[in-house]
Design a protein that fits this description.
Protein name: Restriction endonuclease, type II, Pab1
Structural class: alpha+beta
GO molecular function: endonuclease activity
Helix content: 25-40%
Order of helices and strands: EEEEEEEHHHEEEEEEEHH
Radius of gyration: 19 Å
Strand content: 25-35%
Largest sheet: 6 strands, antiparallel
Strand order of the largest sheet: 4-3-5-12-11-10
Oligomer: single chain
Number of helices: 5
Keywords: Endonuclease, Hydrolase, Nuclease
């Protein structure tokens, strides 16, 4: 299995920043246009092209990364208050049903044929969507588990290219192709961080329990 490159999150110049590699074949970030991946190094990028970030919150059951790290930094730096963190925990505790239990992937038979001998089916994959700030949004979709029975929800953050800046003097990706191994910066708002964690909390019972555990760990740590 290919190990996906994690995206770094840190505090920089008074802001939380996500560092997103957009050209590495094992990166968790892809560039999309009209819903389809595009080769960022061969295509001049537009301001409404989207970076799709398959975001996580921890690894090895202990180390916070990505969304989990955002939440920790936001609380530590006073962006999110203790009361807001408790409200987020209460939201997760009270989730009445989870995405993976409420929906399933459906296979639909049609009357169509391919080459006159193959029946055509369509697979319908449930997706939930929530808007964030500045044109960003999150979507979660169900995938079949590779090594087990059941569904595995995956969460993606979508960020318009116009919302990121580069690591050098060029400043913007708009109107040019990406450079080899290029990394861009995204500055999530408080609302972005809270809504991402809320979405994680509704994906499955395991996600919900993880979100509660992460919040309680952060509260007890600081």
């Amino acid at each position: 299995m290919i190990n996906m490159v994690e995206c770094e999150v840190r505090w920089e110049d008074g802001r939380i920043v996500g560092l997103l590699p957009i050209t590495l074949p094992t990166s968790k970030v892809r560039v999309k246009r009209n819903g389809e991946p595009i080769p960022a190094r061969q295509t001049k990028l537009r301001e409404d092209d989207l970076l799709e970030w398959q975001i996580s919150y921890k690894k090895d059951e202990e180390v916070l990364i990505e969304a989990g790290k955002m939440l920790e930094i936001a609380y530590n730096r006073g962006i999110i208050t203790r009361e807001e963190l408790k409200q987020l925990r209460d939201y997760a505790v009270k989730v009445p049903q989870t995405f993976d239990k409420q929906f399933k992937i459906l296979k639909e038979e049609t009357n169509r044929a391919f080459l006159g001998e193959f029946k055509v089916f369509f697979r319908h994959i449930p997706i939930i969507h929530k808007d964030l700030d500045n044109g960003c949004f999150v979507e979660a979709e169900l995938k079949h588990k590779q090594r087990a029975v059941g569904y595995q929800p995956m969460l993606y953050v979508f960020i318009p290219v116009r919302n990121v800046v580069t690591n050098d003097a060029v400043g913007s990706l708009v109107g040019r192709t990406a450079r080899p191994k290029e990394v861009v910066k995204w500055f999530p708002t408080k609302n972005d961080i809270i809504e991402i964690m809320k979405t994680f909390a509704v994906l499955s019972q395991k996600h919900r329990e993880d979100v509660i555990e992460i919040i309680e760990r952060i509260i007890s740590k600081f």
